[in-house]
Write a structure and sequence with these properties.
273 residues; alpha/beta; Rossmann fold; Rossmann-like_a/b/a_fold; membrane; DUF218
Length: 273
C-alpha cells in the first residue's frame, strides 16, 4: 500500500504537474472573485515556469544532493562486493522493442565491467525489479542482464535481484541474497543525487557501504549562468524534489537514521587505500 501511495503522492506533487494544475485553474475558473483567483494562479504558474527556464534553480537543487557524497578520491584496495541499484534501464520499452533499452542513468550499469576488472574477486549484485504501478511484471534485472551480455560482460559473476520495487527493498532483498559480513567492504553504485537516501537506508539495515556515485546531472558549469531551457530546468527540479520528498518520507517511516545522511569518519577511512 505504501508503494502505491508514494507513486500517487509524487504524481500530485511533481513541480511540473503542480504548475500545470495552476494553469488549468487559471484557464477554466470563471466568474467574479473566482476569476481573479484563477488569473492569479495562471500568472503564478507562468512566473514559475519562467524562473525554472531562465534561472538554474533545478541545477542548484540537484547539486546539493549530488555533492553530499562526492566521488572518492581513493578507492579501497580491496572490495568484497559491489551493489548496483536499478533505475538505469527502461524495461517497458524493452518489452516492446525486444532489445535492452537504457535511460539517462545508464552509467549505473555501464560502470559494472570496469569495477569487475578492478576488483576481480568482488561479488556483484544488480538490484532492480519494477517500480511501475501499471507494468509491475516488467522487471529491470532481466534487461540489465541482457545489456551486460550485449557488451561482453561475464554475467556469471553477477547476481540479479529482480523483485525490489524501491530503494528500501533494494537494500533488504540484496542483503538477504548476499549475506554481507561485519568488516567487509562493499561499494554502492547509484546516481549521485540518489546516494544520500541510498546510503542512509543501507546503513539503517546494518550494511555499511562505500559510496560510488555516478550519473552527474548538475555539473558546475550549470550553476552560475542564466539559460532558457525549460525542459532541462524542470527535469532537474523534478528529480531533485522527488529525492528530497523521499528523504523526508523515508526518515519519517524509520527507514533512515538521519534526515539528510552524510559521509562519516568510517567512510573516509574506508576510501583510503
Amino acid at each position: 500500500m505504501s508503494f502505491a501511495l508514494s507513486k500517487i503522492f509524487w504524481t500530485l506533487t511533481a513541480p511540473g504537474n503542480l504548475l500545470l494544475l495552476f494553469l488549468l485553474v487559471g484557464l477554466f475558473a470563471t466568474g467574479g472573485f473566482r476569476a481573479r483567483r484563477s488569473l492569479l494562479c495562471a500568472r503564478a504558474a507562468a512566473v514559475g515556469l519562467a524562473i525554472i527556464a531562465v534561472l538554474p534553480v533545478g541545477a542548484w537543487s540537484m547539486r546539493t544532493l549530488e555533492q553530499r557524497f562526492p566521488a572518492p578520491a581513493n578507492l579501497p584496495t580491496h572490495v568484497d562486493g559491489i551493489i548496483v541499484l536499478g533505475g538505469s534501464v527502461d524495461q517497458v520499452a524493452t518489452a516492446e522493442t525486444g532489445q535492452p533499452e537504457v535511460n539517462a542513468a545508464a552509467e549505473r550499469l555501464m560502470v559494472i565491467p570496469d569495477l569487475a576488472r578492478r576488483y576481480p574477486d568482488a561479488r556483484i549484485i544488480f538490484s532492480g525489479g519494477s517500480g511501475e504501478l501499471r507494468d509491475p511484471d516488467e522487471k529491470e534485472a532481466p534487461v540489465a542482464r541482457a545489456a551486460l551480455e550485449e557488451i561482453g560482460m561475464d554475467i556469471g559473476r553477477v547476481t540479479f535481484e529482480g523483485e525490489s520495487r524501491n530503494t528500501w527493498e533494494n537494500a533488504l532483498f540484496s542483503r538477504d541474497l548476499m549475506h554481507p559480513q561485519p568488516g567487509q567492504t562493499w561499494l554502492l553504485v547509484t546516481s549521485a543525487f540518489h546516494m544520500p537516501r541510498s546510503v542512509g537506508i543501507f546503513r539503517h539495515v546494518g550494511w555499511p557501504v562505500v559510496a560510488y556515485p555516478v550519473d552527474i546531472r548538475a555539473p558546475r558549469t550549470l550553476l552560475y549562468r542564466p539559460d532558457f531551457d525549460l525542459l532541462r530546468g524542470l527535469e532537474l527540479l523534478s528529480q531533485s524534489v522527488h529525492e528530497y520528498i523521499g528523504l523526508v518520507a523515508y526518515h519519517l517511516l524509520g527507514r533512515t537514521d538521519n534526515l539528510f545522511p552524510a559521509p562519516d569518519a568510517t567512510d573516509s577511512a574506508t576510501k583510503t587505500p
